[in-house]
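Sat 14:20. Reprocessing the chain from the morning session after the first attempt stalled halfway. Input below, unchanged.
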Amino acid sequence: EVLFNVHPRALTLTSSAIPSLDLPRSLEIYADRFADGGDFSFVITGAVNPDEIRPLVELWIGGLPGLGRDEEPRNNGIGYFPEDVRSELRAGLDTASIVTQVWHGATEWNYDNLYDMAALSAVLDILLVERVREEAGGTYSIYSAFSIDSVPEEDYRILVQFSAEPERVDELIEIVNSIIDEIAREGVDPSYTARVSESQRLNFRENLERNPWWNAQIQFLIKEGLDWRFATDKVDWYNALTPEDIQRAAQTWMSNATYGEIILFPESF
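Finished this time. Tokens:
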């Protein structure tokens, strides 16, 4: 509710909400969506012989109904919280708290920004483990994640999430924020970008042999209208990564972002 500003399309469906659902309308939507596969794109990856698979594609995909519609994304008005916020919830019997820190805002969607944000998240993960888990002994699990969207609006979200003793929540939030401020002010040691680049090169070599990776890459290229080099030439980005890229990314997407803290405390705290 906090993250998506209580937008009804982003809320989790609860059992109490089921009686209010319009089931006939739900069936109408289902029938409308599955009446038309005319502008779908299907991606098949694997060790398949094109001549052998063609009759199956013609039967099971070519036989789908098509109404000639060419659909476009629609903005349903789902957006993140509009201003800085701290939200606390007390629930559950677990003695640990769960902290989610969120930075979001508008940004231009392009592959360079997508890669720089991914690299920032990777460097941040290393520093979070070193400072929050190992040095401060504040949590067993801490990580960052990100998303950057091209439709229906060009925007992004970066989050850091960790569990901790309730009494240490504010202390650890301060450590996380100090890490981000340090990256934005001073940058990072080149050893961190070197570690990230090497890990990315290793993962890339392994992924080249994995059908699910290729399937996801092809879907991504189709969706974003990109050519093959954005799948096959990723090493060019890995090799070009610098500490300055990470510093600039932190300044752009974290120092100047709308910021939120969403914290689950035990009910008894």
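DSSP finds nine helices and five strands in the chain.
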